[in-house]
Structures are given as structure tokens and as C-alpha cells.
Amino acid sequence: MGRPTRRPGAGLSLFVAGTDTGVGKTVVSALLLSRYAAELELAYWKPIASGAGGPQPERDSSTIASLVSRAGVEVEIRLEMHLLRDPVSPHLAARREGVTIDIDEIARAWADWQSVSPERGVVIEGAGGVMVPLNEKQRLGRGGAVSGGGGYAGSPLGSGRSAGGELLIDLMALLELPVLLVARSTLGTINHTLLTLDALHRRGIPIAGVVLNGPANDENRQAIESYGDVQVIATVEPFELTSSSLCAAAAAFDPAGDLRRHLQYA
What we know:
By secondary structure, the chain is α/β, with parallel strands linked by helices. It has helices spanning 25-36, 60-70, 90-96, 103-116, 168-175, 189-202, 218-228, 243-252, 260-263; strands at residues 13-18, 42-45, 48-49, 76-78, 82-83, 121-129, 179-184, 207-213, 232-236. The protein is globular.
């Protein structure tokens, strides 16, 4: 089957990615949904998740459902396509369970969903950082050669896919969605964020903006905006996950409304 293409007039969506694991993608996704779900028809999907563990898997989709409910709004929640037990890179977790993550299959599922409900803006959450491996599939390029990125041999940073397998950034490029990048606000974030932005730029992936998660740090924010040529949409400072705190944090999120246009049906 061929790869899906985006249809003109389809509901727009955002891909929430991170500079690392544990940077706050799920909380930011919940704030984004809570901010606009009263105005727009929205849905949430995290197609790949590792670290679920146990007989009763811990789903980020369940966390999102709980958080947006506390904020007093409703969104459609789509379950994960790959819910993996071990808290390791998705390619390792999948290998241990004897499954393969197929990014073309994920892209087709998203396109099918959009064709049925084009009016819904979808917040798609990634797993880990953008360069995390998803599988160990090697792609044959022109002339039968194994495809790889630019730069050094097998580098994943060019416009092609890594010779070692497919990365999350390959799925992001396939979906062709603007990215909201979540990063820590603390020491080290300038380097991590600029490296991630560079990888996204090299793949031609549009960037909707950056959200910093943690205590406000104006110097880090200014450096990321200046050196990364990107807008920092918001800084999400620590807050308690109560209904009142969630509502207040959601109301303050994206104060200029810059992200609304990425979710509103066209």
C-alpha cells in the first residue's frame, strides 16, 4: 500500500514531541487540550508508548483522560497502537515482545481516522525524544543500497532514514504535522533543544513552537528563541494536578492563542 497524503481541508493537528523522555509531553498535551477543547472538537492519540508494565498497563491516554476531565472538558481519546511493557526505547521494548513498530501502518491509521472525522483537531504525542529508535528495519534506497542520513555514514541527521532502522523523527516526517516541542527549562536545555530543532529542520518538519517545562528561566528562553529561531509559546511552571490548578494552568497556556490555528478545522 502507498503512503497516505494529507488532504486539503482536513482537520489540522499538532505533534507534541520532546527533547527527551520525561520532559512533560503528557502534561503539556493535557494543557493544550484543556485550553481549546471548549471551543474546538479535539482528540488525543499517543500511538507508541513503552514502560506500561504490569498486568494493568499504565496508559498515557488514561492520564490524559483523567487530566482533561479534571479541567472540565471532554476530548476523544484514541488508544495506543503499540503499548509496550518495558521502560526502555520503543525498539528494544518491541523486540522483547516480538513485535515490530511499522511507521507506515501508524501513518495509514492516522489518515484513516482523519478521513472519518476531518473536523477533529488531533494532538498526537510522541514517545521519548525525537531521535529515539522505533524499529530495526532497513530501507532500500536507489540502486538497492540501504538508505541512511546525510553527514557521516549511517547518520540519522540527514533527509533520509537511518541505516540502523527507523526513528520517531521518521514517523514525524511521514505525518507532515507541525511540531510543538517540549523541553526542560533548566540547565542543559539550550543544547538539547537546539540539537532537536536542528534535527527537525534537517528533515523539513515544521515547528509550531517550543514549550519550556519547569521553573521560569528567561535567559534560557531567550537563548532558545535567538539561536533556534523559534518561538517559545509558554513556560509551564510546576503546579498541583488539582481541578482548580489545571484550569488555571490551561487558561494561562498559549496566552497569545498561537496554537489554535493548528487545531481548528479548515
